[in-house]
Specification:
EC 1.11.1.6, binds protoporphyrin IX containing FE, peroxidase, about 25% helix, 13 helices, alpha+beta, about 550 residues, two-stranded antiparallel ribbon
Length: about 550
């Protein structure tokens, strides 16, 4: 409490007021005027009526009335932590990103979440988990906004409102909360069979992680790395937990839902408080940046595909350590704003059509959720690099900009000269060729195979993991009211594997249908099984 932050009366002043909240020697109203009492309204006589002229009463209640902001439209329930990312420098040959250079240490903020439940829902429901990381790099903010499942439900962002509407609770009764035991969910994922792969991961043990600390994370899309010499490489990002990958079993998840709905957020906070800092290695799978953007026949622009680790090993490039809990949930965990378009030099996007829609959606939703366009100024979102933008005014503007009107070139403001170019360290979109084509809405033919990759996942599972998957499909589908949806789901399962289909059909008391497409001839990928997961841990 230096003299510049404390008034002569001992009260904190200016920007430090927020930091020092509840620390002054007397209570004030929002204007800094000292209060005599905060427990009794001003009344005309001890038994009232209460007087409208009581500004403290009106201010206190007015502010309380506006304490809530809209929860995220998806991923509303989450928990977060601060940490550091220590680069090994092993990616330096393929990217010029400064935070991936040797010995670089970068502060980070990571938010984990469920997708479908509301802010107050339970932690251990069967769902995908978000794994979003904000790197406060010396070159600006880089966000890696991923999930604990490496594929997505849909291939084109235009279906995102539809898949979420189908997964959220029914509009009339607002049930079920945060579960996939749901007619509209199963209707969607069986009519849009591109969702088969993600749904299978959801029904596997990955859908009920034991802890955020034991989850893998995936950037899902293929991104493009840009090296110092301009060379480009396609890349998929992976987070590998040092504790290994572990899940709950369904019965545990159900009991914990009742006993401790905050199980995952408590586990994360307690571990950090106890000094058992959760750690993940960031790994990259790299692929040549060929014009067709495929790797061994796998379309890298299709976000329902993985590339098996046996075909392209994951190389570790740095270590993430979470070592500090947020001090204020609202200011940090709730107000953090991630965006897949927050990129730094050395990392670029590809033409994945799902990624394109995300580039619009996050910025757009945050204008509503965080009350206007100035949310990058919130402390948790502020870059740790200098900001010199030309964005002005707007709701909740906290900067006091000075000088001439912002435009460039500008001969009046004496500001920095504006020069663009690769040698300035600016973010330059990599000059990849755009294929000559005509406008179409159809998906490419290479997006049409919806069953080979799910079959590979199924074949990679150990017997106990298969048993859990069969149990999950049987339980969730048994909650559907519509028989036709259960039957359609079995037709989808038949195209993954006849044994899986037959077991679930028996559980549901229905006949098992025949496959409608030839079963894919694929090899198992041992790295997909949690039992066989062999990432080095120490
Ligand atoms: C939020 C991941 C696809 C729209 C999130 C969050 C994660 C995530 C982790 C939570 C961020 C946080 O903790 O604050 C993903 C992944 C996707 C995907 C991995 C596919 C690969 C999409 C698509 C759209 C979308 C296609 C829309 C077209 C949103 C929105 C939010 C969100 C609107 C809320 C953001 C906020 O309020 O700040 N997503 N998402 N997502 N996602 Fe996605």
């Amino acid at each position: 409490t230096g003299p510049d932050t404390v008034s002569p009366t001992g009260q904190p002043t200016g920007a430090d007021q927020a930091r020092f909240a509840q620390s002054g020697s007397y209570l004030t109203n929002a204007q800094g005027t000292r209060l005599p009492d905060t427990d009794h309204s001003l009344k005309a006589g001890p038994r009232g009526p209460v007087l409208l002229q009581d500004h403290h009463l009106r201010e206190k209640v007015m502010h309380f009335d506006h304490e809530r902001i809209p929860e995220r439209v998806v991923h509303a329930r989450g928990a977060a932590a601060h940490g550091v990312f220590q680069s090994y420098g092993t990616a330096a040959a393929v990217t010029k990103a400064a935070f991936l250079a040797e010995d670089e240490e970068t502060p980070v903020f990571v938010r984990f979440s469920t997708v479908l439940g509301s802010r107050g829902s339970s932690d251990t429901v069967r769902d995908t988990r978000g794994f979003a990381t904000k790197f406060y790099t010396s070159e600006g903010v880089f966000d890696l906004v991923g999930n604990n499942i490496p594929v997505f439900f849909i291939q084109d962002a235009i279906k995102f409102p539809d898949v979420i509407h189908a997964g959220k609770p029914h509009p009339d009764r607002e049930i079920p909360q945060a579960q996939s035991a749901h007619d509209t969910f199963w209707d969607f994922v069986t009519l849009h069979t591109e969702a088969t792969h993600h749904t299978l991961w959801n029904m596997s043990d990955r859908g009920i992680p034991r802890s955020y600390r034991t989850m893998e994370g995936f950037g899902v899309h293929t991104f493009r790395l840009v090296a110092a010499d301009g060379g480009t490489t396609l890349v998929k990002f992976h987070w590998k937990p040092k504790l290994g990958v572990h899940s709950l079993v369904w019965e545990e998840a159900q009991i914990i839902n009742g006993v401790d709905p905050d199980f995952h957020r408590r586990d994360l906070a307690d571990a950090i408080e106890a000094g058992a800092y959760p750690r993940w290695e960031l790994g990259i799978q790299t692929f040549p940046d060929t014009p067709d953007q495929t790797f061994q026949g796998i379309d890298l622009l299709d976000p329902t595909n993985i590339v098996p680790e046996e075909l392209a090993p994951v190389r570790p490039v740095g270590l993430l350590t979470l070592n500090r809990n947020p001090s204020n949930f609202f200011a940090e965990t709730e107000q953090v704003a991630f965006h897949v378009g927050h990129l730094v030099p050395g990392i670029d996007i590809t033409d994945d059509p799902l990624l394109a829609g995300r580039l619009f959606s996050y910025l757009d939703t945050q204008i509503t959720r965080l009350g206007g366009p100035n949310f990058p100024q919130l402390p948790i979102n502020r870059p740790h690099a200098p900001v010199n933008d030309m964005l002005r005014d707007g709701l909740h503007q906290t900067a006091v900009h000075r000088g001439a009107a912002p435009y460039r070139p500008n001969s009046l403001d004496g500001g920095c000269p504006f020069t663009a170019g690769a040698d300035t360290g600016a973010y330059i979109e990599s000059p990849v060729p755009v294929p000559e084509s005509t406008k179409v809405r159809d998906a490419p033919e290479s997006f049409a195979d919806h069953f080979s990759q799910p079959r590979r996942f199924w074949l990679s599972m150990s017997p106990v993991e298969r048993e859990h998957i069969i149990g999950a499909y049987t339980f969730e589908l048994s909650k559907c009211y519509e028989q036709a949806i259960r039957e359609r789901a079995l037709r989808v399962l038949a195209n993954i594997d006849p044994e899986l289909c037959a077991e679930v059909a028996t559980g549901l008391g229905l006949p098992a249908p025949e496959p409608t497409v030839p079963l894919a001839d694929v090899e198992p990928s041992p790295a997909l099984s949690q039992v066989g997961h062999t990432w080095p841990t120490d």
